[in-house]
Amino acid sequence: MSCEARILDANLNRAREAMRVMEDVARLAFDDGPLCADVKAMRHELRGAVAHLPQGWLEANRDSAGDVGADIASSTEMSRSGLLDVAISAGKRLTEALRVVEEVLKTNSVEAAAKVKFIRYRAYDIDSRLQARFGTGRARQWKLCVLLTQSLCKRPWMDVARAVINGGADCIQVREKEMDGGALARHVEEIIALARPAGASVIVNDRVDVAMAVRADGVHVGGSDLAVRDIRRIAGRSLLVGVSTHDLGEANQAVEAGADYCGVGAMFASSLKPDRIPSGPAYLRAFIERFPGTPHLAIGGVTPQNIHELAAAGARGVAVSAAICAAPDPESVTRQIRAAIDQSSAPQGAAPLNRSQTDPQMTQMPQIELTNTTWIGDSESVPSVKSADA
User: Fold this and answer.
1) Which residues are catalytic?
2) Nearest by Cα to 144 from 340, 345, 281, 351
3) I need a labelling partner for 64 at 20 to 30 A (CA). Which of 1, 34, 44, 199 fits?
4) Per residue in 257-308, pLDDT tens?
5) What is the CA radius of gyration of the chain?
6) What is the chain's percent helix, strand, coil content, to nearest 5?
7) Domain count, the chain
8) To 10 degrees, what angle do helices 248-257 and 228-235 make?
9) Domain check: are 238 and 268 in the same one?
């Protein structure tokens, strides 16, 4: 029995299985055709790279029953926290297996080893692209995000912050474009101290450095700010990243880059950005239809008077600035807007929020009980399963 054949066989199987997992995640979780096609092409390239091996040689040297490593498992091997964890594990398994194949092939074909090396570097890139699609993997669909700006507040900003939290805002975005870094950091820390105990998130507008320094929940950027990819290079998955979008083209770029949520607007004319031509509720409908699982915040001129129009369009969350901050009674206005969103439950037949970004656990899978194992084809173990919920 050839030990080289056994090592190659085990790691080629491991690599193919990992690629299949990654391909299905790209295909079925994100509908990402180009990424799915790239993973599929990589599988075929790997098959071609080892085509010089004698047909049947790997299978003839296989000894699954005698594999001493078959029963060795780590404490986390049968545990995954969600689909992001599944994808990360598959990517690591793929690149590790390809490295083993490459090294062993150096003993019989330098040319084949070089091909596998090329595939391995492609795998690193594809793994990075797939992980990017998840964003942080813990995005929330907020119902009401208040854009808090001191200059817009008729009352002391701290009173406004308390009022909106009491009124039901589940997110506060700190928008202070003129404040220097040190003052902004202290300001955000005060808001975090108010918001966190109430379960509300705190997002910093534009400033990735400040958001990281004070451990805010995330950062929100516009089209002229840092790209999502650049923010991930700085912050990794430590920050939620939101992106302002004004049409489906911008939205598609943001979602593909791994934005955790999108600002969708402008819905109506706004005193905050008077030059912005509203996209209107029609854009909101189009966004929801195209990206049903991506958290969104409809933004731009949202008031108690027009919130029902957005609710009717399917809004699951809105972002509001002047209508709340400048109100004599910000808590009352917050309650009105929040109530309208709460009452606008998704219509029957609407697409479920099933994207992995929206819920890092995806959906709760039924518990399964392994019953027996059948061996088929290329020695792939396919357990029969019985659902505990059946």
Assistant:
1) 175, 244, 273
2) 340
3) 44
4) 999 999 999 999 877 667 778 899 999 999 999 999 999 999 999 999 999 9
5) 25
6) 45, 15, 40
7) 2
8) 20
9) yes
